[in-house]
Structures are given as C-alpha cells and as structure tokens.
Write a structure and sequence with these properties.
disordered C terminus; MetI-like fold; 15 helices
Length: 300
C-alpha cells in the first residue's frame, strides 16, 4: 500500500497543512453561538410571556408564575370579540388597511425614486441623495407634530388619510431601492428598451421593477412592520376610536385597566392576536427574502 505525499503549493507549504488550517478555521465558535442563542431568547421572551399571560383569567394573571400557561385563552378571545360589539376587530381591520395600503404605496414610491436616483443623471442628484441620507437619521416621532399641523390645515386629521399619507414617503426605503436598482438593473437593458421606443414609465414598470422584485419585497416587509407597529402618528392624528389601529386601541384598553383590571386579559389577548399577521406575512414572503439575500451575496 502506498501513501500519497502531501502536495506542495506554490509558496512551498504542503496542501495537508493548509487543509488542517482550513479545518481549524471552519470549527464553530461556541462563544458566538452562545451569544446568538442568548440574543434569540432575549427577543423571544416577550412573545413567550404574552402567550402564557394571554391564556390566564383575571385572577391567575397576578397570582400564578409568570410563564405558567393556563386554559382561558379562548375565553379571553371571545370576551375581546364581544367588547363594544367587536371594536377590536375594527382596530385590526384599520391596522391592516394602514399597513397594507401604506406599505404598497411606499414600496412603489421608494422603487421609482430609487430607480431614478440610480439610473438617471440630473442636476442636484448628489445633494438630493445626501438630504435623503439625513432623512434616514431623523426619527419619525420628531415629524409627527409638524405633520399634524400640516394635515390639520388641510382638514385631514381624524381621517384615514392622516395616517396613510405621512407614511408613503420612506427615506430608508428609497435608499434601499436606490442601492438595489443600481445593482440589479443593467444599464444596457434600459438603453435597449429606449432604442426600441419604450417610454420611461413602461421601462420602469415592465422591466426594472420585476428585476428589483426581491429587494422590493424586503422594503415592503420593513414598511409593513413599521406601519403595523406605529403608535405615535395615529395617536396624534386620530380622535375617533373607530379609526384607531391596534396599537392605539390596545393602549386605550390598557389605560382603562387601572380602574377595571379585568381588561388586562383583553389587552394581552389582543397583543397576542396582533402578532399573528406579522408572523404569517414573514412566512409567506420569506422565500423572496432568501432570494434577495442570495442575490446580494452574489453581487457583493
């Protein structure tokens, strides 16, 4: 039986030693894995607590172990449904309207704006992009009061438009769309379409947007979650509780719980139900997100 000698590489080192170094480098880091597990538990703990607390009745909520589940989840959901003739589900429908329509419009505006910034040359382009980056750093809470004053002058406060309109423009979404358009839409394809006589909006809607689809799904998810969880803007804009999203509605229930502790179980059941659409959304769109991540890795 013959043994193969280790093959020498150009720098004189044996391939066997380099393979040994690679195998050492590929060993998992238990420290980093442990940190990731702790981080995951830290993020999941509030969800686990909500699931356990939503299954308890009013007496068990403050007298039993925090993470010990009970059997009253369905009773709490029924009580929540009966509260003021199903007002909770009106809040859910409002939230779906704000998040769904707002995220779709914001994604389209972000895609068009990012495509223009990436593929067109015009005076002031660099300055506009710098202002856009500054807008990414400005928290939305700071803009809520000025937006309220502007919409109040237009007579749009306490309407659906007062929540939808301010969330259509997303500096971060435009920034992401610009980055993805620059990487995924070849300039030669655009020039070929122009040569064939295609109009600019046709090129964007029929050629550029499908190429940007995985990135647009990511923008849509970010916007959907941000609008779904938004509290300050609708809290300032709306006064009619029939227009409230789920965040403002549950906050009102929580404030009433100080005088009526039985409402705490309704708040917890509502908080649990409000998580379900977000989980479904991520499960349905995760395959597009994986494509987006893979495409970004290839482009990098």
């Amino acid at each position: 039986m013959t043994t193969l000698a280790p093959r020498r590489t150009a720098n004189g080192k044996s391939q066997r030693s380099s393979m040994r170094v690679d195998s050492v480098q590929e060993k998992p880091s238990y420290l980093s894995t442990g940190i990731l597990i702790l981080g995951a538990l830290y993020c999941l703990f509030p969800v686990i607590w909500v699931v356990a607390a939503a299954s308890k009745d009013g007496t068990e909520l403050f007298s039993t172990f925090t993470l010990a589940p009970s059997t009253h989840l369905w009773d709490n959901i029924v009580a929540l449904t009966e509260y003021r003739d199903g007002l909770f589900w009106r809040w859910m429908a409002n939230t779906a309207l704000y998040a769904g329509v707002g995220a779709v419009l914001s994604t389209w505006v972000s895609a068009l704006s990012g495509y223009v910034l990436a593929k067109f040359e015009f005076p002031g382009k660099t300055g506009i992009f710098k202002v856009l980056l500054m807008g990414v750093l400005v928290p939305g809470v700071i803009l809520a009061i000025p937006q309220y004053l502007m919409l109040a002058q237009a007579g749009l406060t306490n309407t659906y438009w007062s929540v939808l309109l301010p969330q259509i423009i997303s500096p971060y979404g435009i920034y992401l769309a610009r980055i993805y358009a620059a990487a995924s839409v070849p300039g030669d394809v655009i020039e070929a379409a122009r040569t064939e006589g295609a109009k600019e909006m046709y090129i964007f809607n029929r050629i550029a947007a499908p190429m940007m689809l995985p990135g647009l799904v990511t923008i849509f998810l970010f916007q959907f979650v941000a609008i779904w969880n938004n509290f300050m803007l609708p809290y300032i804009m709306l006064g009619d509780d029939h227009l409230f999203p789920i965040t403002v509605g549950l906050n009102g229930l929580l404030n009433q719980g100080a005088s009526a502790p039985a409402l705490y179980t309704l708040v917890l059941a509502g908080a649990l139900l409000s998580i379900v659409p977000l989980v479904i959304m991520f499960l349905l769109l995760q395959r597009y997100w994986r494509v987006d991540l893979a495409a970004g890795a290839v482009k990098a």
